[in-house]
Amino acid sequence: MKVVVLTGPESAGKSSLSRALAERFNAPLVSEFVREFIQQAQRDTCYADISNIAEQQWQQELAARALQPPLLLLDTHLLSNILWSETLFQQSPAWLETALLSQKYDLIALLSPEGMPWQADGQRCQPDLGERLKFHSRLDDWLEQHQQPVLHLSGSWQQRYATLEQAITQLLGSA
User: What gap in Å lies between CA 148 and CA 140, rounded to an integer?
Assistant: First the structure.
């Protein structure tokens, strides 16, 4: 089984790319749970919500992994929970990083916010490109520090899709 994560700041194309790639490769997709949480709760998150949100994200990932599909796509993983918690509340639950580092990810696609238009949706909170670039940099720093297999993606949506499609095809070919 190969596990591919899409990560990046808001409005970088993660969700639309992950859905398109899931369809292309007929692969299961674990979506970003926090969106569902906010929709159900009808309020902004607070620090007390972070562990619950992350636990749901984590359980969905583990359940999908247990099915052992040839390819599993994740439209985020616990790193986003960690960094959003730190961004919004200056702290994150200690268990998140331990859990995150306990799993192997075959490819982590880090999407740049550059070249992608901001799309407000009632849940996003970083319309400023500078803020999204800072978040992108924090993701990149963590991934590099923890020696994760990163593919940097930029350019148009179509360029990102083509690059990631090729990388996944190669990854599956080496299985």
Answer: 10
Burial classification of residue 32, based on how many CB atoms lie within 10 Å of its CB (0-12 exposed, 13-18 middle, 19 or more buried): buried
Residues listed for the chain: 175
Domain 2-173 has CATH 3.40.50.300: yes
- Calculate mean pLDDT across residues 119-126: 59
pTM here is 0.90
Looking at the DSSP bridge assignments, the partners of residue 108 are 5, 150
Q: How far apart are CA 82 and CA 84, in angstroms?
A: 6
Pick the closest to residue 87 from 34, 147, 27, 23 (CA basis): 34
> Where exactly are the structural domains of the chain?
2-173
